[in-house]
Amino acid sequence: MLLASLNPAAVAAGADIGDAVRIDGVTLSRSDLVGAATSVAERVAGAATVAVLARPTAATVLAVVGALIAGVPVVPVPADVGAAERRHILIDSGAQAWLGELPEDSAGLPHIPVRLHARSWHRYAEPSPDATALIIYTSGTTGPPKGVLVSRRAIAADIDMLAAAWQWTAEDTLVHGLPLYHVHGLVLGLLGSLRIGNRFIHTGKPSPQNYAQAVADGGSLVFGVPTVWSRIVADGDSARAMAPARLLVSGSAALPVPVFDGLADFSGHQPVERYGSTESLITLSTLASGERRPGWVGLPLEGVVTKLIAEDGTAAPHDGETIGALHVQSPTLFDGYLNRPDATAEVRSADGWYHTGDVAVIDAAGMHRIVGRESVDLIKSGGFRIGAGEIETVLLAHPGVSEVAVVGAPDADLGQRIVAFVVGDASPEALIEYVAQELSVHKRPREVRIVDALPRNGMGKLLKKQLLQEF
Ligand code: MLC
Ligand code: AMP
Q1: How many domains are there within the chain?
Q2: Does residue 110 lie in a domain region?
Q3: Could you tell me if residue 368 is inside a domain?
Q4: Full domain range(s) for residue 118
Q5: Which positions fall inside the AMP-binding enzyme C-terminal domain (predicted)?
């Protein structure tokens, strides 16, 4: 059973001890979760796909769990989504209804509300492990986001592999304040907790103070993206407040070595770093029982195999120095991009390897270090994956823009920050607001530079590396 701790028979027999989920001021026991989510399941059963506006609320938790009970694939929609991105996600996914919260613009879809106090004790058969659990939209280098088909099998396998690596048990209290529309917050944090049977606390905004409070409330397994950890270290007191936790885990982007060291100094915990993607789920991690090496993301999880392909197409040696393109094979890989066999074939080989797009080195002990990405057009900002092409397309549709180039500039807080170089006569503020409205708030450029011309080579191709030299 995917959400093993919500087994109705066990919950009815009294396994329902204590709180299961605390989020947005609401506390749910496992019995509350089974009863209310099964009531949701009764209302969505039979739908092909539903969209969930994934704000961090109890309604979102019940919507996702209810759809999973009924075997209906969920499309988590970013809480801060803008008009054009929402339209694309709804049309591409074929979502038939909004389940849970209704956005301001429902785009004409019917609404299935979630009632916190409704209860049903109907028993649903567990859907096939091959069934799609989630369709998560994620950015590529060009074009609009693609829907990643994530199966129930992949999710269950990943959580079990991570549980082994992190000695994660029902005794833990998992804490994070991350969005519930991506792998990190939703799959690992929420679904992981409901599979393992540990208590889960969502902190609300992932501020250093909220993290400190959640650890004071018993948090033992704490998840964050590097930006969150960096802000906690900068705060000092909050970093010291992590001391009673059992394991601090960082992922979704590279954890800077000074942040790793700061956490170790203040809290006494060297953080565990892990690596993965929407397409592969988490495939590499350092171990609760093993070496944590600053700047390195760890070893393949049980069942994962990796290979490095050097520029000449041969296998790169595992010498800790030779750089190659990272490919992974894992029971956790996605089932393709929805409606995009062409894009799927570009990254997944017939014999089951996923081409991650990341560049890495591996040492003789099998430790991996991520060196960077193959393309400058995939940006990671605050742990969010953002395609430069997607932002450029939107900006080009603005009447005040004639040419544009978007880059990820190095940023001490966000890892990378989105900077748009624009030829045109619009104001930077108007363009930032335009992207926030059309795509989503977290994809907005943090900076727009109006320039006379963009650097191009003789063929007219943009020279983004030249733009990046400005930083
Ligand atoms: C600012 N705001 C605006 C705005 N400009 N609102 C509307 N329009 C505008 N133009 C508001 C925001 O809504 C927000 O409001 C506030 O200003 C601050 O927003 P922000 O500046 O965008 O937030 P910031 O502090 O920079 O966010 C940092 C962060 C965030 C770390 C909290 O980047 C984050 O949550 N990252 C997590 C990403 C993640 O989970 N990635 C996992 C991908 S899965 P308000 O009301 O909120 O204050 C993956 C796999 C793996 O990668 O390996 O895990
Ligand atoms: P997403 O699909 O949003 O999960 O983004 C996946 C990408 O995030 C990966 O391909 C990497 O580029 C990056 N990533 C995730 N975890 C790490 C990490 N620990 N270190 C460096 N990059 C990471």
Answers
A1: 2
A2: yes
A3: no
A4: 1-13+28-127
A5: 390-461
pTM to 2 decimal places = 0.97
Is pLDDT at 16 greater than 70 in this prediction? no
Residue 88 token pair: 């694309």
Span 323-347, average pLDDT: 98
- Rounded to an integer, what distance in angstroms lies between the CA atom of residue 62 and that of residue 41? 9
Query: Which ligand lies nearest the alpha carbon of 206?
Result: 1
Average pLDDT value for residue range 94-99: 98
The residue contributing the CA closest to ligand 1 atom 47 is: 205
User: Which amino acid appears at position 22 of this protein?
Assistant: R
Mutational test site, ligand 1, from 191, 414, 441, 446, max ligand atoms within 8 Å of CB: 441
Nearest to 191 by CA among 33, 389, 363: 33
Average per-residue pLDDT for the chain: 97
Atom of ligand 1 nearest to the CA of 179: 40
What burial class does residue 216 get, using C-beta atoms within 10 Å of its C-beta: 0-12 exposed, 13-18 middle, 19+ buried?
exposed
Determine, yes or no, domain membership for 181: no
Determine the residue of 135, 187, 248, 252 to mutate for testing ligand 2's pocket, defined as the one with the most ligand atoms within 8 A of the Cβ atom.
252
pLDDT tens per residue, range 431-450: 999 999 999 999 999 999 99
Closest residue by Cα to atom 12, ligand 2, is 358
How sure is the predictor about 10, in pLDDT bands with cuts at 50, 70 and 90? confident
Between CA 96 and CA 303 the distance in angstroms is 36
